[in-house]
Structures are given as structure tokens and as C-alpha cells.
Amino acid sequence: MATQHSRSAARIMMAPAVILLLGWMLIPLTMTLVFSFKRYLPLRGGDLGWTGFDNYVRFVSSSAFWPSVQTTLIIVGGVLIITIFFGVLLSMLLDQPMWGQGIVRILVIAPFFVMPTVSALVWKNMFMDPVNGLFAHLWKAFGAQPIEWLSDLSLFSIILIVSWQWLPFATLILLTAIQSLDSEQLEAAEMDGAPPLSRFAFIVLPHLSRAITIVVLIQTIFLLAIFAEIFVTTSGAFGTRTLTYLIFQRVLESQNVGLGSAGGVYAIILANIVAIFLMRIVGKNLDT
Amino acid sequence: MARSVTTRRKTINTAVAWAIGFLIFFPILWTILTSFKTEAQAINDPPLFLFFDWTLENYAVVQERSDYMRFLWNSVIIAGGSTVLGLMIAIPAAWSMAFVPSKRTKDILMWMLSTKMLPAVGVLYPIYLLFIQLGLLDTRTGLTIVMMLINLPIIVWMLYTYFKEIPGEILEAARMDGASLKEEILYILTPMAIPGIASTMLLNFILAWNEAFWTLNLTAAKAAPLTAFIASYSSPEGLFYAKLSAASTMAIAPILILGWFSQKQLVRGLTFGAVK
């Protein structure tokens, strides 16, 4: 039984974390909200007064907005499909008995620990460079014309790089989930003559559905915010300008803070829609 | 009964898994190999895999020309500092939530999680402005604070899930024997909590080390950590593949090694305990 004494002590112990996070959330958020209703150009006159919803309207009606939403959705969707599909296959493979399982796990998980700027730069130069990249060498070896990956297939290339970074994460979580699957259930199904594909569809996949949902939600939140990969490879050119990147350009490159802040508010709303679903799952888990 | 597996099946599994593992790891392997080549060998066509003149020259050049140690030191200070600072704030909070839960504990945890979902770009300018006014732009102090704040929810959550696993009866027994709060924490809780704290520390060090939004936007020359240092190679200078590889290898090596120890914590930390 918690005593009155320990309860007030608990409150004091929690205070620093709560106050700091509250400040970290509220102060910048309030500032963003205030700026978003202002005409605010730090290099061209500074604060030029209130403009109502002008920035919100202008952000959405600018010619760059819808393409950036589309780009964001393609990147997030593409990476999700690739990482989940291969993640499920890979986690099932890694769950099988084999020699050197620990080493294979290490090899598979490694890309997740590579900092985003390094992976973007390595892929950009050493693999996708149309003259000296490894892919160019490979293409030439087969007598084909090397591909200009980051300009002609820019979106695909970025999806490839980001998928490489996030496949380990999906695999690891799905593997953790698959290992909790009762193997007797599978054996029973096997003995009853269920073919591998239906064993997968009716036992493995339903068991993984919760883990897959969690991977989708967490990755979506991180993927909506990818920045370094685009910053380093294309700087938003060749149709790779995501919503995050567009806001970054408005705020820091063209120094239109009001407009960028309105964009920021849109990004926050978008992230919150995803977050609500994730929190519901995590919250349910807290009760058990 | 354990499933009996034929040697043939096991051999096939092994071959396929190793092939895929190698393929996924290949970009990292290739970077490490290239870092030991001369520039001419690095772009040789056909590519050279193992049979080239191994050299350490690139590492010396990278260090000499770009003062690699300074960026490394910045990374260590920022990632290490933010982790230690975060733990100091999070341990009491997680402790009280795990052992003296109230009706609001769950709400507070969920709210902390929600701050982590806030997209950084949405608050980029306010933070930038505050940093200018407080003189924190391009300082290690400023970046350490930001890293601490963005990882604080994860630290609290991870610690909370670890602390939850410590049986409460032990604490109650200690309390009945007359242990004070201080003694309780010092002699009972701490020894049992150390593995969890260590795991949390490891994962957060990795996350802070690799963070590349705030480090790119809030630093310039002075406080730039390795993430920003590497990004500077994306200028035409990036044509020097061997040197780029040496710089990259040095930037990722420490974390790759730490990361291999933290696979399990990764799942717990990044799914907020939802997958165990």
C-alpha cells in the first residue's frame, strides 16, 4: 500500500521529467501556432503583423504542396510495403533452425545502426553514382546503359535507401513476435495435413498481425519525418520534396517563417492522426 | 516435442539465410573494404573486392584534413551527455510511476509518448529562434539538451517497463523491515534495476548518436557531431570514395559494435513495450 508520504515523494520525483517535457512541447508549439498566423519574414522586415489564416491557405494552394504530399505518401507507403513484406519473410527464415543464426542476425540488423547521413552518402556515391557507382559497373558489365538513379529514378532510389535502413527494424520486431508463436499449434496443423501456405495464412499471419500493426505505426511516424536521406542525396530536387522537406525549405531556406509554421501545423496534425492509433494499441497493452 | 529437422533442410536454411544476410550487410562491408583502398582502386572497373593493396592512408588523411577527432568528441559529448542527463531525470520519474502508481500514471505515460510523436519540423523555427536568443546555436550544450528532451519519453518508458518487472513484494518486505525510502532505492532497487538502466543507456546513446535532424539544423562548425561531419562530404568532395569510406567507417564503427549488444533492447525501447 502506498502511503501518503510515498505518494507525495512520487510526485516530486516525477516533476522534473513532466515539467521539462511540458515545456519542450508547449513553448515551441505555441510559438509555431502564433507564427503561423503572422506574416513573418526574418530577413525581409521581420514580424509584419497578423494575417489570419492566410498562411494556411497559401501553404495548401502553393504549387509545391500537393506534389509534396504525394511524394510523402509514395515514400512512406513504398517503404512500408517493402519492409513489411520482406520483414515477414526474413523473420520466418531467421526463426528456422540453421547454423550461425546469431551471426546472420547481426548481419541483418546492422543497417539500422548506420547513421542516416552515412547510409545516404554511401548509397548515393558508391552504389548509385552513374559513373563510378557499383550499380553502374554492374550495368556496364552486362552491356547496359548505367541508370542515373537519383535523378531518373529518384523516388525509387530514396525508397530503396530508406527501406534498407528500416528492414532490420521490421524484421527484428516481427522475429520477436514470431518466436512467441506456439510451435505445437503449427505442428498440429502440419500433422493434420495443412499445406505450408495455409499454415502461414491461418496461423502465422494472424499471430503477427499485432506486431505488423505496430511496425506500420511506428515506422510511419519516423518515415513522415525523414530528412537526412533527402538532404544528402537530392536536396529535395527531382520530385523528392516531402512535406517535411518543403517545410524545412520554407522556414530555413526561404526564411518565410509564417508560411513554414502553417506547414508545420499541418505536419503535426498529420502525425497526430497516426499517433492516435499507435497510442491506442500501446495503451491497451498497459492495462494487461 | 521439438520439431525434428533434417540436415538437408537445415543446410538449405543456412545457405539462404547467409546469402540474404550477406546481401543486406554488403553496403557496410563494401564501405569498410573501400576505406582501405587507394582512390584509384576505389573506382576501379571491374570493382576490386579483396585483392588490392590494403592501405591505412585514407584514415590518416581524413583525420588530418577534417579534424575527425573533434567531431567524434562532439558526438561522444552530445550522445553521452544527453543520455546521462536523461537518465538522471527519468529514473526517479519511472521509479515513482512503476512503484507508486496512481490513477493518472497511465495518462502521464501516454502523454509522454505523444510528445515523441511531435514532428520535429513542426517546431523547427521556434527552437532555432530560442537557440539564437539563448546563445545555444552551434553549442554542444544546446544540442545535448535537445537530444535529452527528444529521447526522454523513450528513456522513461523503457525504464518503466524494466522497473515494472521488479517484484513489488521485495520492496514491501524491505519497508516492513523499516527501510527508509533512501535505503530502499540504494540497496534494493538499484542492484535490481542496473541491467535495465544499462540497456536503456545503450539504446539511447545509439539513438542520440545517429540523430540527424537537429544535429544538421542546429550546428555549424563548432558543435557539429559526426552526422553533420559526414553530411559535409556530400559536396563535390564526396568524389573521393576511399576517404568518404574511411570517414563513414569511423563514424559507424563504434555504434555498430554497441548496437550488436542491444538488439533486444531495441525492440522494447522502440515499441514502447508493446512487443516483447
Automatic annotation (TrEMBL), chain B:
It is a multi-pass membrane protein. It is found in: Cell membrane. The chain crosses the membrane at residues 12-33, 71-96, 117-136, 142-163, 184-209, 240-261. SUPFAM superfamilies: MetI-like. Coiled coil: none annotated. Pfam families: BPD_transp_1. Keywords: Cell membrane, Membrane, Transmembrane, Transmembrane helix, Transport. Its main location: membrane. The keyword 4Fe-4S does not apply. The keyword Zinc does not apply. Residues 72-262 form the ABC transmembrane type-1 domain. Belongs to the binding-protein-dependent transport system permease family. This is Carbohydrate ABC transporter permease. The lineage of its organism: Bacteria, Pseudomonadati, Pseudomonadota, Alphaproteobacteria, Hyphomicrobiales.
